[in-house]
Specification:
Length: 146
């Protein structure tokens, strides 16, 4: 049973806002770059709510988003999940947001970092590549894709 979670934008821009879809008795509020979620619920319920988190912003750039959860005993996750979002301006000036759910694993276990990636771009605009980076690798980390 989990009792809470936080989703934090490191170095948020003044126009950044995190929103989410309330579900399973989990409620929350966003203040100064931190979305705080509360409510006793299952890990599956928190996973669904965390996967619904989205970023709204008027400014392009890279954002680092950290996810942490707290169990019913008040213990916070040892290592927060981290996702990088790249916000790029489109032709009409509105940003394109790349959002991903986060995966959290244990030492020695394979973890799906992002089972769903959504990329939105202008019609007819082709993508030329993508980059995935492990921050603070420990030497045994390995990234694969299918």
């Amino acid at each position: 049973l989990l009792s809470g979670a936080t989703v934090t934008i490191t170095m948020p821009d003044g126009s950044d806002e995190l929103t989410f879809t309330e579900s399973g008795g989990i409620t929350g509020s966003y203040v100064n770059g931190v979305l705080t979620l509360t409510g006793n619920a299952s890990a599956a319920a928190y996973q669904a709510v965390l996967q619904s988190v989205s970023l709204s912003t008027d400014v392009a750039g890279v954002r680092t988003i950290e996810f942490a959860v707290t169990d019913a005993a008040g213990q916070e996750s040892v290592l927060p999940g981290v996702t990088l979002l790249t916000v790029t301006p489109t032709l009409n000036g509105a940003p394109t947001i790349v959002t991903t759910p986060v995966g959290v694993g244990s030492t020695g276990q394979s973890t799906t970092v992002s089972p769903i990636i959504v990329i939105v771009n202008e019609p007819g605009e082709l993508l030329s590549g993508a980059t995935v980076t492990i921050t603070m690798p420990d030497g045994s980390d390995e990234l694969t894709f299918t």
